[in-house]
Amino acid sequence: MCPVSVDFCVDSRLADAGRAGYPMSPRGSYTAHAKDASRVSDSELPRVPATGSEPELCDDVPSLRKTPVKANAKREQNIIKDSHYCIRRNDACHIISENYSYKTETYYTILNYELEGKKVRPSSHVILDAYVVPICLERAKQGGIPVCEWGISQGYVPLPALLYGLNYFATTSDFFEVHDNEKAKEVIKHITNIGKYPFCYQKLGEGATIYSCVGIFGKTATSWSPAAGIAEKVYECFRIPLITMVLVKTGEQLLLSSLAPTRYSQLTGDERSLLAAYLSNQEFL
Amino acid sequence: MSQLGIFVDRKTLSNSEQLNALIHCRDIAEGMGHHVDFIFPVDIHKIPKMDALFIRARTDPLNVTYVAARMAEFHGIPVIDDPRSIRICSDKVNMYSHLIKKNISLPKTVFLSKTRLTVEEVTHLFDELGSPLIVKEPSTSFSLRVEKVSDIAEFFRVARRFIKLSDWIVVQQYIESRYDWRVGVLGGNLLYVCKYTIPSDTFKIQASVNGHLVYCGVESVSPDKVPPHVIDLGIDAANAIGRGLYGVDIKNNNGDAYVIEVNDNPSIESGEDDCYPRVFEQIVSYLFTT
Fold this sequence. Notes:
heterodimer, A: alpha+beta
């Protein structure tokens, strides 16, 4: 076992990492929107709604996530909202954050490390790759990860499809599942700012279901092996300690659709425990 | 015959000057024996079939031009602008950090995070950098989100607006001048020089004055009429960023030259190259020899 040097710190000056108006999707707060709801039993993963789906509570489906209780969100197991953490191992600093996005406090912290010539994971360059959907999927594909086929469009979209904005204001946390032309038109108008920008689409297969899964240093709190395998590969490819994978399951095939930031407040108890174990050096990298 | 892809978007084609420049570029490349394809965002999957890619649309790490640049890089295709240059030049914190690291002459520059946005800190900035100050949101281009502020209240009004878009902002000493030098650099060599004359109603090269957009005047200048230290500074600044195509903006105030910014994807459609008829030929040659 290799020795691990842990430099665990919270910099109070860096406690405002969230961008104003950060439009994080309420992951797990709605029921699955996929057509074939019966497939939920074959996985422990939470199925996720596309942005704008109708909210329905999911008390009768224990495997689905619900919105975390607000009171627990700010401080639990020493993981503080809007803070980022650095775990030092060997020569590299591993930054854990709930928002690595471009021009956030976390992004600039990472950039500073790089400008000072220090080793830091993830790199600022990888963060940008991860959060721009087509680049994310191209990089993941080269890393041997099964990914959704994607295209870029200004208007046309094959149905059904998952749609992502592709512009300065878009976030991978916001994706839209469309099944008919009317809904597609409405969504495209929104994500392209009335045709100003192109968007990214992913054609969905028959009975496709969308899941999310959190990867923590490449590990998942779920025992479902296909997702665990993808999480491991995603970590090898991107080196982002805390990430939400959006996955599309069609039949037995599980494909990566995108990577999104992960709010601490939306971690399950098991995920929070796993993250806390890394932060307190109980879990070796 | 080599395939040159020129990546464009709707906005590029909606401007007649840009359209003329693109056609001129295509004609030159074809005259050099290359086949040219205009590539639109929806054609991005064609990029791996190209031998080189020239991006002629507004670049940003979060938009489709960056996807095009990374697609080219993933497939080992030479590209202007390369992804690294886009990353650095699109973010002024990153860009100025690279210039500072190489001791490039700049106006006094401070990066201010939103956690340090306090009256004490701002008072200190006015004391250190003088008044007025220039406040920039890091992703600014074409002088958007660049403001001149003269007091603390004005500073906070602007900073609060910018901090919604970025956790850090840039604060700079104001350098007065009626024109900026623009030094075009390609692969570490001088490509062209022009003067951007700043409209009298503003301090920016492009601004909205009384509801009307006013643009700077453009005058191409032959190298023998440019102060040598301006050309040297432009090349040094470009080299601090990388080996691509850059437009370096310089203010030459009382003989002291300061780099205002380094732009990737510089404009070459408004007469910048009038004294330099081989600009597109040099760019195409560079793409096929790197």
